[in-house]
Amino acid sequence: MSRTNILFYINGKRYCLAQVEPERSLIRFLRDDLHLTGSKLSCGEGGCGACTIMVSKYDRDQQKVIHYAANACLMPLCLLDGVSITTVEGLGSTETKLHPIQERIAKVHGTQCGFCTPGFVMSMYALLRNSPQPTPEEIEIAFSGNLCRCTGYRPILEGCKTFCNKGNCCSKVELDEVNKELDKDIVSTELYDSSEFTTYDPSQELIFPPELLILGKEPPSSFTISGSKVTWISPTSLDELILAMQHCPDSKLVAGHLEIGINTKYRGISNCVLISTTNVKELNDIIEMTDGISVGAAVSIARLKQELETVIKRLPEHMTRIFNGFVEIFKRFGSCQIRNVASLAGNIVTARSTSDLCTMLVGAKCQLIIKSSKGSERRITIDDTFFTSDGKSSLKSDEILTTIIIPFSKENEYMYSYKQSHRRDTSFAIVNAGLRVALERSGADSWKVKDCILAYGGMGPKILIAKQTSLALIGREWKSDIIEDSIASIGQDLPLAYSATGGAVEYRKALAASFFFKFFMKVQSDLKKEMSLIDDSAMSDICYRPTKSIQIFEKVNPDQPSHDDLRRPIVHLAGLQQTTGEAQYCLDIPEYKNELHASILQSERAHAIIKSINYNDAINLPGVHGYISAGDVPGSNRYGQLMPEEDIFSTEKVTSHGQMIGLIVAESKEIADAAVRLIKIEYEDLPTILTIKDAIKAESFFLKPVHLAGGNVEEGFANSDHIIEDELYIGGQEHFYMENQTVIVVPRAEAMELEIAATTQSLRETQFAVAKALGIPSNRITCHIKRLGGGFGGKKNRIATLSAAVAVAARKLRRPIRLLVDRHVDMAIKGSRAPYLAKYKVGFNNDGKLKALQIKMYSNSGYSMDLSPVIMNFSMIRLFGSYEVENFDYTGITCKTNINSATAFRGYGTPQAVLITEKIMTEVANRCGISQRQVRESCLHGEGYVSSFNQQLEDCQIRNVWSELIQRSDYENRKLQVEAFNKNNRFKKRGIAIVPCSHGVGYTGITFLDQAGALIQVYTDGSLLLSHGGVELGQGLHTKLIQICTHVLGIPKEKIHLIESNSAIIPNATQTANSSATDLYGAATKDACEKLNERLTPIRAKMPNATWEELISAAYFDRVNLSVAGYFADPTECLFDFETKTGMAIKYYTYGAAVSEVEIDTLTGEHQNLRTDIVMDVGRSLNPAIDIGQVEGAFVQGLGLYTLEQQYHTPEGIPLMNGPENYKIPAVSDIPREFRVALLRNSKNKKAIYSSKGIGEPPISLASSIFLALQDAVMACRLEKNLSGSFKFDSPATPESIRMACADSIIEKIKNTCQEEGEKAWGIRC
Known about the structure:
38 helices, 8-stranded mixed sheet, globular, alpha+beta
């Protein structure tokens, strides 16, 4: 008889549950029921790794306990039967004992915001349980499914590589390799002391529960769990499974629960009965047969990969070529977490048109054994007819795919797999291919084609075979003259419509042809035929090697007291708590007793009149408490940054997709989400303006253009030897912080008081927005937050309106209300970095000296101004920010469109301005035929130069930074090496680029923000509580302020504590933004400390030898006030007027420069960032570890902006990128393989605390060096084809941009896709 309960362990504790909702995820059980909040909920679709846990179970087939990482957000509770789960809390804690992983990641400075950290810890832990001394390659593979937006990954990798065998780890570049002349007494390369690390002893790990081991060695027992909506059936034999299907014909089979989990959560697709294949013996077998390998339908990808690798080592090479093709594609399939639970059969029945595995199955002529619930069985050879459309196959509803047979290859049979994706790791294919050919001898040194299948994914609505090409090759001699015919034929076999889903039509056709070219070259190499025609660079993929790095910074003065932590690389204040999962974020705050949950009703149109809203079905859903809209707002429904220009709740009209129309409030988030899906809105569509060019045509702009000019532009152009006119498009960027926006509002019983916990960078703005919406004074509202899981500007504005909306609901219903915004909603509602279009004209002489510049910049600001006019001002003053220009004319225009409003983002208009600048400088050098270094050096700023905004430079370090970078990076020698590489490699090219950056720090035109407050409270035991108005985003603000306290007060950091940022303690707090938080709050903290010292001076005079504790005790009994308020108002006023060109625009500059080297595959557009060297002027660093972390993290985020991250909308204005599945931020494999960062020595800055400089934003623009290196590599390819002129190369430099710019004979042979009348593109870049 079937059981009705499930048994599992979590962190060694036993759980036996009978009352379970089968669709409920493990992440919800951990967080809501067990209050284990270390595992984070971020994307909810298995794409970010923040929820990673370790699964341990007894594998009956392998007869041993296995350990693997998995995503808790996609794992239903019913899959836990018989397993043991370990979460980050199960490893260790700061109160008991840290696990060595937790300790090392923290002490190597691998945490910033810390939200992703538990996921990395658990991925590493699962790897260590399988490999106690892993290789660097294994570590990077283990992290392929973990995303981090803060650190740039380098310190995380470095901390984990300390577990590698000493002889197998090369994560550090030796100092003498960098520069033998550096004085080791002045600089240091050690940010941590590895001798402090606890030794890792694998024998001390948690044991697998004996109860589960005993049960695992016994035959499994079936069970059935019936929930309120879903029934879960877990049979143990194929006969049981078939019987269950007979009884429940509408059931769905479940293996890894990946696609079903996402469908349930985000697409509202539910299944009443789920039948698990996990314990079905026949579906978990892998059997070696005479003609191949038989794979059970439930076998995981990870296990199959392991088995195939074992067979490959044992059998002759010619028998395992197909297996090799599978293994290679497995490496690029999903992430470790996904491969550990996904099955081959699940991939087949999901039937994605871009499925890597299905393409290989078709190409290899694999066989499927399919059984019917009625008892029949059929065996088919899988081909493209098995798949009927994207997501559908010819498998009937009553059929079960039981077995996949992967054949051995024959002696003269060759097969290779190919894949190109938007990002190397954890990314669906743009195009993939499984290409196979069987040959037979036709002469002593000749071969003809006996059989051929060219299978492709991503070339239509399903997996396709290039049939005419495959057939035409049969019987032909396998030699180079088939290439041209085959490429032309493939284009005819695989036509793509202009409107094809996924876009990039011409690129996809180029990839299909290029894959065949690579395949032909590889087979010829295997045959050792036509060797003179074979080019190794065409056959091979880019070789990814593990990362290594060095960090160089100034040593602390040896005379500095040991308790004074200023300028020391101390660990992030919450680093250890972040690695253990103890660090609390807004969504971790425990639920209140009578708490309700909100879900947002968003606009589904980009521009439309709201004719009616029918929410009757929603509010009648059990558990729903109400619908909240504009009519419920007691105060003002208007809000805005520069003026009240938009509604909190849209009423009569929507002007962008994703605008908030209302809230549903219910007993749970799941009920609220379900209710929102029941609301029906009737719209009347209006014309849309989506792109910058649309706005220019319609003259749809905000405010008047901002203008900045100097010299005589016309005269400059007249005196120029050359003039270039061109334009550059720079795409937008999503913040993609790891912690989604969250608001918790708690109404109090008296005086209309409210307590708000919100993920905000500005407590003041959130407090003000709520007060205005409720029509009450700000003093009734307390806003607080302990820390944020990243912000980057994205948690500055929109969170204020979300908080106001939730506050309206909480005030109306008199209940605490929590709003946890899902990732896809967060991305739709918040706004992003603005796309830019620059139209430029530049005049210059033969020596590269600039004579005249005319630049017109347009930003796509979306439906409201938000902060776009201010951001455009920043862009204007940062154009050519490192260069001397005599004659210039700049214009900035903010475009009003029907996409989500652009908002603040790290860099604040600078990344766009810098790329425009450096693109122009590159074009000038190319036109003149002089080096990139020369053209830049000739124009670099010098001390005393008067900028375009009439400000004289003081303490200008750009030339010092530049010269040190040239020396450290060995730039000239590497340039020669790049040129030599390019001569010897036809289809792989390298590029190198060098760029400077002068980032002005200061609130230009918003001087009132240049103020800050802090409060110090000292208790009689000598402990000190520090409060300030800044928010810890991961940038180390709290840590630096504590370092300042230790320096001024002369006490150890252990005496000092911070609880949270709170508007009731520090009123009117300036936002945490613009790289200014340490400048402002550090100065306020210093002021408070100095005041405290002043009060303690008389006591010290009386007690010169007293300890700190004795001093404080005496002060208390002497009635000295030990509560001290600090305040700072920056005396430097940045009040530049664009019309009169008067006033200061910049408080000071943070300088930097970078050299980056890349390698591209000209046939696919894939690239690798080989090496980046950065020299950064941070003044005198308060904490070198934190500052270097900011440099690396900002650079990698910029790398995403310039090379990876794309935003597309439908022609109707609906965003197409709404989560990690389709929006790709940099992953571990994207960072430079060598990452070298040095902080400039002997720098000073009299305008900031202790001569430091703001560092959070400036390095992001240095990633333009990657973009320009890619352009350099593409140019090397084009020059070989005598294409020496400029070419279109917009940002981001994606694989598509790179491949299509590498104009070659393959692209020439591709027939352009025609746009049919009325046909629309799949997506547009706005």
